[in-house]
Amino acid sequence: MKPVLQSKEFSAAGKDQVGGKAWCLAKISGQGISIPKTWCVPCAVYQDFISQTRLRDRIFLEINRKPFEQMRWEEIWDTALRIRNQFLTTPLPPEIRKDLADLIDAYCGEKPVAVRSSAPGEDGSAASFAGLHESFINISGTDDILKHIRLVWASLYSDAALLYRKELGLDIRTSRMAVVIQELIPSDRSGIFFGVNPSDAGESLLEAVYGLNQALVDGDIAPDRWHLHRSSGRIIRHESPARDRCAVAVPGGVSFTGLSSHQVDTPPLNDREVRRVWETGKQLETLFDRPQDVEWTFLDDRLIILQSRPITSTGFTDTDEKRAWYLTLHRSYENLQALHEKITRDLIPEMIAEAERLGSKPLADLSAQDLCREIEERQKIYDHWVSVYWADFIPFAHGIRLFGQVYNDAVTPEDPYEFMALLEKTGLKSMERNQLLEELAEMIRSDADLRVRLEKDLAPGPDHPFTRLLDTFIGQFGDLSCTTGSGSECQYGASAVIRLLMEFARRPASAGSGMPHQRDTAALKEQYMASFPAHRRAFAQDLLHLGRESYRLRDDDNIHLGRIEARLFEAVQEGQRRLGDPATEEKDRDMLARFPAFSAAPAAPKQPEAPAADETAARRWFRSRQIVGQPAGPGIATGTARLVKTPQDLLSFKQGEILVCQGVDPNMTFVIPLASAVVEERGGMLIHGAIIAREYGLPCITGAPQAMQLIQDGTRITVDGYLGIITSHTKGL
Amino acid sequence: MENNRKQTLEQIAALFASQDLAVLSTQKDNQPYASLVAFATSTDLGHLYFLTPTTTRKYDHLTANPPVAILVNDSRNQADDIYRAVSVTGTGRAAVVDKVKEKDALALFLKKHPHLKEFSRAPTTAFICVAMHRYYMVSRFQNVVELEIIP
């Protein structure tokens, strides 16, 4: 079989080889409907590539590292990133390359094309897998087309495809991917037609924008929308947005440009053109025997169909809302830029002001009734910011991923996480906090009297520089214990910070916090910038900035949220104090006792779990020697494992111990400078513990399954952050 | 005899090419230990290579006590294995070698095991070369031949 087929050859090759998209396009063209010039790289080429390069074995190893059922979405993204990089860094074998290049050169020359996925089973059957595999617009030149063919192949294992692996029937042994190469139409108007409106079965829907429809698909430009009578095509209503810009092809991608004043005032389609799209949509519905989701474009007066697939509301009948939500985290550069502005210009200043406003209220002066109201009010404020956190801050973290993908596509590094080095050292709030802790520790180190006083639980006077700095610290970051979990820990107050500071002070001054691990990133940045053509460097620079902001805010937003949470706990703490104060009047005590925040019995302090007798016996005969997780911070360290199960455990953490936990909350990362390594059960390269561990140059492993059960507290372990292996030091053989 | 030796070496090479994994035997403090390793050999069968993290028992053992044995066989876990399967035991001396200096040997290893490329790159992954002394090939239940590798 030829490695690149022309559309007239698709039928003979079979749907199994050309995939759903190519197959449908050939059928559409057979009806006399215009399609762009289309070619297809059949599945056989994909299979030859992964067999000859042995990439199949590498993917097999990658997707079998850990059962998918145990992976969080972030780990699935990491897996997809690594597989994508394997496709990028595995060259085409010379013979495959030559065969492809000769035909692509002959068919496409230097003309810009779209390179799209066409998986067998995709687009033609009852299930439509829209958006799970990748498509690339405006690619030109044989080398670039070849690179994007590999990227489309890699998208067989995209994070979205891995999430929907069961529905897709994804199986490394049998799954294949064909690639459609389509001439790029320099369209002046384009859009999408839905044969049936998902929310009204009596209607069809037509959406149109000026320029390319990429921005419409990504949600970056609001389209004109026509609701049409499904059987007659009559226009029921037309929704007209504020039109201001359109997407146009620029070398290597898509960009935005302003509209002319005529375009601003005129819908992209007139009524006659709306009718034409509807008629063609109906024709496709008859051809494929079900309502279609059609991408179309106009070139002058010619209507051209880019693709057509059966309608399903989200691609699947999905009852798993969480997966659908994960997919919404994929944001375009445009969308992330808008989110960045909202977060930095509005949300964070509002959070800071809110925390300060709440902090300035004198709680001690409030009546019991007003204190109860204040707690309710603070709870509402905190809940509001938690919802903002999920709606805006979490999606903005995708900026790190977008940057990583663009970096890897441009630089094709051997290490798929090389890009992380360019994101580090962004001045995280938690590093600022840890620096302040270090300054306090230095005061204790250099002042023997102060140390002795603190050891005896004697606080220095209010004017002592230590007290003043400690007050500043607590004013800014709370007393740590309040923000590490439920309010019940607030009883520790400043003494918790002091206990932690004594531990910091036991370390030599040069041992870490404030002097985090340094890396030379200038060469990396130069390499990144140099891999873009001159006209794309401004974009590359902006995207790097966005990635760094995303990295910084991923941690900072939690610190800001922690401050608001601390204000809530502060009010709860005041109520608890009054309840325990004999001087509190009886009626006030009754009122407070009835208030929901206090009526629940206080949780008893957690006792260390004593292993049951039979468990102790069993452990003599069963020990975990090695656990494999994901390497998330390079380095190797040996030390005592300290299992942190409750926030209180953090406050007795000792210098040099290895932090083993379910997951590090950003408000818990103050102990990281004391640790010699970090192990988290929760997976992902971009989780908070991993970010801070890398800032300090500590070995870190994430996604270590059952680490909290398999590692025994207080035992010696070695953490190999290069390989992701935790080894318990068991006795000799 | 020379022909027999040549023929046996070819049989061993064919067996090694067909198998990805070998059993490695090490010992320390008078206690033997066995582990599985993905292996490759030089074309003359004089050297056998594998990778191991430096935190493993096998690494600890072979650095303390370099003489090791390996076993490769083509059993299919069926009754006829006892007559059909061929099993080769080899003995030699293990050494940690520099991945950069021995880049040709590493390339040879990765050609057989390309999926271990990322694993090989970690600074905590050691590349081990066993200089082979002897091979013992067992076939048809109890036929055993021995041959020495002449350096």
Can you tell me about this structure?
- The complex is a heterodimer of chains A (733) and B (151).
- In chain A, the strands form four sheets. Chain A has an eight-stranded mixed β-sheet.
- In chain A, 47% of the residues lie in helices and 15% in strands.
- Chain A has 733 residues and is an alpha+beta fold.
- With 151 residues, chain B is of the alpha+beta class.
- Chain B has five helices and seven strands, in the order αβββαβαβααββ.
- In chain B, strands 1-2-3-6-5-4 form a six-stranded antiparallel beta barrel.
- The radius of gyration of chain B is 15 Å and the shape is globular.
- The model of chain B has no long low-confidence stretch (mean pLDDT 94).
- The chains are: A alpha+beta (733), B alpha+beta (151).
- At the A-B interface, α4 of A face α5 of B.
Summarize the structure.
Chain A is of the alpha+beta class and 733 residues long. Helices cover 47% and strands 15% of the residues of chain A. In chain A, strand 20 and strand 21 form a beta hairpin.
Query: How large a portion of the residues of chain B is in β-strands, by DSSP E?
Result: 35-45%
Please give the largest β-sheet of chain A.
Answer: 8 strands, mixed
Number of strands of chain B: 7
Q: Tell me the Rg of chain A in angstroms.
A: 30 Å
Separation of termini of chain B?
A: 19 Å
- Shape, per Cα inertia axes of chain B: globular
Largest sheet of chain B: 6 strands, antiparallel, barrel
- Give the number of helices of chain A: 28
- Unreliable residue stretches of chain A: 483-492, 512-517
Instruction: State the largest interface.
Output: A-B, 20 and 18 residues
Q: Helix- and strand-based class of chain B?
A: alpha+beta
> What's the count of strands of chain A?
21
Q: Which overall shape of chain A is indicated by the principal axes computed on the Cα atoms?
A: globular
Portion of residues in helices of chain A? 40-55%
**Average predicted local confidence, pLDDT of chain B:** 94
Q: Rg of chain B, please?
A: 15 Å
The first-to-last residue Cα distance of chain A is 59 Å
